[in-house]
Amino acid sequence: MESKMAVSLLGLGTMGRGMALNLLHASFSLTVYNRTSAKTTELAAQGATVAESPAEAAASASVVLSMLSDDVASRAAWRGKDGALAAMQPGSIAVECSTVSPAWIAELAGAARERGLRFVEAPVTGSRLQAEGGQLMFLAGTDEETLHAVLPVLRCMSREVVHLGPIGCGAQLKLINNFLCGVQVASFAEALAWIERTELKRETALEFLKKGAPGSGIVKTMAERMTERKYDVNFLLRLMTKDLRYARAAAAQLGVQLTTGGPSEQLFEAAQQEGHGEKDMSAVVEMTRRGA
Questions:
Q1: Domains in the chain with CATH codes
Q2: In 3-state terms, what secondary structure has residue 75?
Q3: At residue 34, what are phi and psi to the nearest 5 degrees?
Q4: Could you report the per-residue pLDDT of 110-143, keeping only the tens digit for each?
């Protein structure tokens, strides 16, 4: 597979922008599409071609990637009016990198097969900084041959590409991952609010927790962001709300009840309703600070 193959990327949000920049730095011929065209200006200045629709972006690409917010946005980009799937050439590869439901992945993969296309699900772990630094981890579900064909594209945006198994495995593990992250963020928000209502020296208490058994990477990050009220976006709060909802539904389909996920989802939903949806997920602490 040639290193300068034609690649298209649908979606230039918090994650997509960084992915696009790394594709350009790796000298891929890149076409981008974003529903809000203002986000394409920076990339056009660096050599990307800007398409007016997903179909236009996909028509001449060997690989089409999508990085969108949810099932609804993904469906519109791939199968909606002027969608990418119908415009792709047989044998080209569709890659869904968004965090979406396993049910939608199954439907999308089936639609791709009907069009004579190859399909990879490759949701990512990491946030804005990892996307910009080319340090994402792709959780790939597909066959070995298709994954090998798309590896040059994924590797320029990542520190690792993990092949989990057949299509469907990526969506499941990504939701498991985000479920665990969301519960930790919510529980730490409650713990911090508790600390702040005591006579404890806050920084001393937090250093103890960070160095002890609870001190995961996400707890350490949240400790800084929540105490400094730094809510510039690494991971949108409204997307964590969505991911917890998708996780609950996916687990339920397999007979697993996420009893810790429900209250966490409710806390994020309350924060979103209070106007924190477009902030970083760390802003959920404002709900526990006021006793929501």
A1: 6-167 (3.40.50.720), 172-289 (1.10.1040.10)
A2: helix
A3: -145, 140
A4: 999 999 999 999 999 999 999 999 999 999 999 9
